[in-house]
Amino acid sequence: MSEEKIRILKMLESGIVSADEAVKLIEALEKSNTATGASSKSTESSKGIGGFFDELEKIGQKITAQRPNTDTIHQSKDKLFEFMQTAMQRIKDVELPFIGKGTEFTHVFHETDVTPSRLKIETANGAVTIRTWEGPGVKAECRVKVYGASTEEEAHESFLKNSTFYAREDKLSFSVGLKLMKTDVTLYVPLTALDDISVKLFNGAFDMRDIDTEKLEVRAANGKIELKNGKIKTLEAETGNGPIRIVDCDGERAELNSFNGAIHIVGTFRFADLKSFNGNILYDTKSDLAEAVKAESMTGNIELYVPQELSVKGEIRTTAGRLQLPETGMANVTEKDERIQKSLKFESDNLSDGRQLVIDAETKTGSVTLRASSLHQTPPPANPDDSFGEGI
């Protein structure tokens, strides 16, 4: 989904859409929904949400790229929220509408003589959880619900026919492709560090903890992504609809994208690129090893917590929100308040050890806040809606 999302961000990067433009988008989407009709839902599911973004980009090409003036920002924001609700409903409608009572059962895949270093997981409907264990080999516990089967035997046969569990040498592949079933999977892997994890979900959440890996790539069309307590050298996580929460994770590079959802990261990545079209961003850097962070949001607030011992330099920008820096510790601050954008360029005065974190943060209708924090202090989410419960 990354290419489609990049296109939609480029479409809007010149500024927030106006009220009239948002209405045009909504009308075009509704017209498309009416034209396709109920019979096209299965076809739409097979295309995934990529078709939605392609359609949205086509509509957006007809929209002016001019920035709105500040007099219309708040009206535009209200209309944009209406547009976002319509867009997210469209994404949810891509899910296959399950009708009737399904047949439920459990199934366990287990390979005892393998210790894979590479994992590849793909599911159409259902959550994926990854945990470590001290047992032999790898095990996948599946909670399955099949729709349209007349007996449990038929449902079980359909599940086995449409699923793959392949574990050989250093690679594990697991997939469930049939959309007429929901499969919640808990995968147990050895305690050894992994080289590569690739996860693709159409409709479901992803949860992983206590696992170290060189690379983790997670793509979800509709579902939250949660990671806890891991060393992940390269992290790429993206969801179309849902929050991303990263807690006590460290690594070299993190790229997090949520089209409709908050991003909350507590940990340290040397380079972090955080984007949320419709959601708040909070990044609490837990060590002085961070070198660069870039945060972008269209409608959400951005909060960055930096250790007070770490030197910082950068720029924060907003169109309609507020900009806030720490009250002390800033030697050079340059402020601009133009008609279409406000900005603050800054540099702290503590350059003793030579380390410096470069910050680039921008939001259209939200606020940007930079705070100095203790290395042992974890701030709460700025908004109660950004708290994702006790699940992680």
Automatic annotation (TrEMBL):
Q: Which domain of life is it from?
A: Bacteria
One Pfam family per UniProt: DUF4097
Instruction: Specify the DUF4097 domain's residue ranges.
Output: 160-343
Where does the YvlB/LiaX N-terminal domain start and stop, copy by copy?
A: 3-31
Region: Disordered; residue ranges are: 369-392
Tell me the protein's name. Answer: Uncharacterized protein
